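lol so apparently i was supposed to do this last week
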Amino acid sequence: MKNVIIAGSKESSILRQNCYPVEVPGDQVTADMIIGLLKEVLDNNSDAAGIAAPQIGFSKRIAVIHKSVVNSKEHLVLINPEVQTIGVDTTAEVEGCLSFPGLSKRVKRFKNVTVSTLLSASSNDKVTIKLTGFPSRAVQHEVDHLNGITILEK
Ligand SMILES: [Zn+2]
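anyway here it is w/ zinc ion bound
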């Protein structure tokens, strides 16, 4: 299994980088490989809400949300995700992060968002999902990672 990059380690500068978009369909093979590795990390971390590609060393706009968070049979794959807020309501809750073992931090986030994502890296078909509560928080956390932002900066 791919190791998760821990803040402060020698590879950790990737956690501060704005990730590159997935090119469709040119990046399809790479994207599928990254998605497989991210799912594997989640399958082995049942208490992780999600993980983003830079956390395993890839500067690509891909993240996966644990299926338990979205109450689904499948993990939710985000490719080139775009978050839009709905309204201005915010809520502050304690979050953790696989890249910051042992750290819990209260983070303020928007309550309600939509996320648009490619369905796969093979075509430009997109889906937009409306989220509230913890799934909304988890998606905002992972999309922050794709912009080089961790809970330390929040
Ligand atoms: Zn994180």
